[in-house]
Structure formats: structure tokens, C-alpha cells
Design brief:
Elements lengths: L10 E2 L1 H5 L7 E5 L3 H6 L6 E2 L19 H10 L7 E5 L5 H13 L4 E4 L2 H7 L28 H7 L5 E5 L3 H5 L15 E2 L6 E2 L5 E2 L2 H10 L7 E5 L5 H11 L5 E3 L3 H5 L10
Parallel strand pairs: 1-5, 2-3, 2-4, 4-5, 6-7, 6-10, 10-11
Antiparallel strand pairs: 8-9
Length: about 270
Amino acid sequence: MPPGTPELPLLLPPEELASKLGDERLLIVDLCQDATYQQVHVPGAVHLSPSQLVSGVQPATGNLPDPAALEQALRQIGLRSDLHVVAYDDEGGGWAGRLIWTLDVIGHTNYSYLDGGLRAWLDCQLPVSNEAVRREPGDIEVRYRDEPVADREYLLARLEDPELVIWDARSPAEYCGQRVLARKGGHIPGARNYEWTLAMDAARGLRMRDADAIRAELEALGITPDREIVTHCQTHHRSGFTYLVARILGYPKIRAYPGSWSEWGNDPDTPVAN
């Protein structure tokens, strides 16, 4: 951690962030839709459009963007290596988790997730703003690391590996092939289904549920900390949150598959289970 960077928990309660507003060592990043940011956001938060975190190229629209494009987007919001990022959205952590995964990919490990995001912030009746924030351009350099990423070839080579488990964050209907959003329906053979919203507490502004309860539910499915975990959804948006959950739970070997089902389910040669 760079000298002077504030020491904040990965799962950051709204009240704790409220006490740190105005700290120039923080970069609060809003990943809500543009219209939402214009109406209401955490004071001091800069806006990053979720579309800037993905390639948008069919069929695997969730793949990482060109490094130069991502570097430009992150510099535009003021990211520097000495800043602690606080990410949030208004949907329970999908896009915030996607940003945190992206930060892991580029090696920027100073970050927190605002627990519950904008929903919890508003529930707590904490200060809000509708003034757009512009920070001085940052100087972050973007180079992609392999460790947080699993691609199609990586998974194909390890489908029979008992040390690896695939965490499918989609809905049960998608997992079972009842709802088909690609050429093929179903799931990657051996994948375990734990829908991303199961880790959220709808009665508490979409804050993360009790960690021990989530851990027990995952372990009952074989998603255990002794195994390497690869999480995915349709485009690695929903699984941005499940990646984040695994990080919060302290699981040491977690990757994400950014191609996700939009790639796997549209490839005629990939195996599928129902």
C-alpha cells in the first residue's frame, strides 16, 4: 500500500465513508447509469460509465477493452497509484465489482466497495449531490495481468480438474437452459449455480448479507476456499459482484471469466450441460 493511503476495509459501511468525505486520498467512483449520477450521487464521486469497462465486441461483449482505451478512461476520472478507490453502483455491486476486478487486473489493489452502494447510502439519509465532479487527470498506467483472468482456453483445459470450481452467477433459469441468451442454453459442465442476488440483503439497501451465512451456502455447493474459483455470468457484469464477494470472504484463489456465457454459449465447439 503506497505511503499515506488510508486503510479502509474492503467492505466499507456507508457511515464510515461519510466520515471520510473530502479526503483527497480517496477516489470515489460512481458506476450508476449516467442519468442517475446526474440526479444524485455521493458527494465528491466521479462518474465512470460501465460501458468503459467492457469491449462491447460481439459475441463476448464483456471482455476487457483495449488497454489504451481503459487507461484513458481511468486517467480521465483521476486515478493515480497513490489513491484509494471506493466503488459503488445502485444495483447491489455488479458494476462496482467489475471495476474492482478490473483494478486487480491492472494491479491497483487499494480499493473498497461501498456496502449496498447508492441504495444503502440513501437509506441512511447521508449527504448527496447532483453536481458533476471533475478531478485532475490521473497518471495510471494500464497493463493487464493474467492472474485474475480465466479465458475460454483456460477453462477448457481444466474442466476435469478437481481443484477448480466454476461459480455460475446467472439465474437458475439460465443455468438450466430454460432461459436462453445465446446460441446454446445451459451451463459449463461442472459449474455450480449461486445467483448473484442471493448474497444481497434486499431489506437493508442491498448490503451484503452475513458473510458466514454466504460462506456456508457456497461451501454446500462445493465453492470452497481450498479450490480455485472461476466466476462468470452472461457478460461478467453480475459476476463482478460474485468476484467481489469471494474477495470479501477471503477466498485466496479467485478468477473471473470475462467472456462468460456470451462467448461460451455462442461457440459451437464448447461443451454444455443442462
